[in-house]
Design goal:
By secondary structure, the chain is α/β, with parallel strands linked by helices. The protein has 2 domains: about 120 residues, Rossmann fold (3-Layer(aba) Sandwich), CATH 3.40.50; about 130 residues, Hypothetical Protein Tm841, Chain: A,domain 3 (2-Layer Sandwich). The protein contains 10 helices and 13 strands.
Length: about 290
């Protein structure tokens, strides 16, 4: 069978242990902090960045990798891994230029390497919702599943049902970063109201608000249970930005009520933490049939 390799961006926020174990290739986003140009999870790491972010008067900006970054990655995967087929899996094209840049790189690569098949996928999601698709693609490839079957898994069984639920102390960072989407009507809420947001078809949407973090976490559990049923099985990633204790609370609530086939704790990369802000806690899940 042709050798399959998998690539994604740093915004998928996949834990490093899984990146290494599954030989997933990651391309770093750019973070522009004043005159500095940083590479997400390469020249700036999570803890250092969050310590600085709480003091920031002006948010840094982020930029997706360019076509040249992706082309270089594709060439490296072919040369170093012997890849003959490549999945290039990216966050929502509505909030980022990664998908478009990867599509340009795909065209360039196919001129140079016409025998290599590259499939660029817009997950219409972000964070570990994208991450789950990357992980499952890499696992399936290692198990010997063929390229078209993996593509069907992602497009038909994951993209339509993967869901992100998130809360934070404030929507300030999403607003300042221009990523607030349809949740902008929640900006005027009182300081003691915790917003609950998600993503639908690639756009951030409001899902409700709670008087406390614990109530927001309970609402997350209720939303999952409503979507999959009390006997439904899920794979879930608890995601956060410097809020490990908070996601442990969410984990405890979720796993008392739902059947979690697999769970992961993942910290958001700096390029995502710019927009969500320190203290963000949430989850990314999808239903499974096993």
């Amino acid at each position: 069978m042709p050798k399959i390799a998998v690539l994604t961006d740093s915004c998928a926020s996949i834990p490093e242990t899984l990146l290494k174990e599954l030989k997933i290739h990651m391309v770093a986003y750019y973070i522009h902090r004043g005159q500095e140009v940083l590479r997400d999870l390469v020249t700036i790491q999570r803890d250092e960045f969050l310590r600085w972010l709480v003091t920031a008067k002006v948010l840094p900006t982020t930029a997706s990798p360019g076509p040249g970054d992706y082309l270089q990655a594709y060439e490296s995967m072919v040369k170093e891994q012997g890849a003959e087929e490549i999945f290039s899996i990216h966050m929502t094209s509505i909030a980022s230029g990664a998908y478009q840049a990867a599509k340009i790189a795909q065209s360039m690569a196919q001129e140079q390497m016409p025998k290599v098949r590259i499939e660029v996928i817009d997950t219409r999601n972000t964070s570990m919702c994208t991450g789950w698709m990357v992980i499952e693609a890499a696992r399936a490839a290692r198990a010997g599943v063929n390229f078209d079957s993996i593509l069907e898994l992602i497009k038909k069984k994951m993209i339509p049902v993967a869901r992100m639920l998130m809360t934070a102390d404030t929507l300030k960072y999403l607003y300042m970063g221009g990523r607030i989407g349809l949740a902008k009507n929640m900006l005027g809420t009182l300081l003691n109201i915790k917003p609950l947001i998600g993503m639908t078809d690639g756009v951030i949407v409001p899902l409700g608000q709670a008087r406390s973090r614990n109530r927001a976490y309970q609402m997350m559990v209720e939303m999952i249970e409503s979507a999959v049923g009390p006997l439904g099985k899920i794979k879930i990633a608890y995601t956060h930005a410097g809020a490990r204790e908070e996601v442990e609370k969410i984990k405890s609530m979720v796993e008392k009520r739902l059947i979690c086939v697999e769970s992961i704790v993942a910290e958001l990369s700096p390029a995502l933490a710019v927009h969500s802000g320190p203290g963000t806690a949430g989850l990314c899940y999808y239903p499974v049939e096993e």
